[in-house]
Amino acid sequence: MFNSSQFTPKYFLLTGLPGLETLYPWFVFPFCTMYLVALVGNSLILTVIKKNTSLHQPMYLFLAMLAFAELGVSASTLPTVLGIFLFGANEICFEACLLQMFSIHSFSIMESGVLLAMSVDRFVAIYNPLRYTAILTLPRIAGSAAVLGLKSVTLMFPLPFLLKRLPFCGHNVLSHSYCLHSDLIQLPCGNTRPNSILGLCIVTSTFGLDSLLIVISYMLILYTVLGISSGEGRRKALGTCVSHMCAVLVYYVPMISVALVHRFVKQAAPAVRLFLANVYLLVPPVLNPIIYSVKTKQIRQGLIRLFLQRK
Asked: Model-level pTM?
């Protein structure tokens, strides 16, 4: 495979669950079920919002953006994860790996940005309900979607090219079932400082800043709610935020948990860490359609009408 000590790899080897290869058939059903729920659930959310003009409102349009981003994340990881557990296929060519890395991170950045936009949407709805639709107009929502998409693509665009210019020195085994930038920059033997600095800036300016602004948004929401005189009014105002708060927790808690396990629980078996890493990307796409279907009356009714029409 190599002609010299420095080379551009033809392929990378992905890692499933080391030491548990004989148990892969037992993991196939859970992973297939999770991917099926994620893909079908988010597709149904998009279909319901598209077909029901009454749902063409800011809250539901942002939910459609979230479903689209989660479909992207699920579709990006599905080929390699199921390829490993179904067929034992752990090879991925260099260009496909870069494309998968770009897709996973771009859709994850978009997902984080949409959650921030949804928190702003909830604040506007509670702080100034009479001007809610006047502030969050359809052109502004469309502009927000374009900005979020452009931001995620623009931030990630340089990383594949920065990786492709680097020489590799014989090691081509990745530590996950899919390609991540944090994995890939461990392999080159050249200067990876530009990649590391850019990666840190991207994480800080997206996930870090978004999470901070979401917290600030909810502090403002809580302050506004406490100013409502009636207890019933306060309950109704907070009730409109329940689904979004669950979505935020479902997104950030698994991410933080995986980071803490990788950073501090060194004695944990590699298979445990890798299983958590595989699951954490699937948790939001699987749970969010369920949360919004159960907690949001309009989505639930739209799903019922959709199924009745098909019958």
From this structure: 0.92
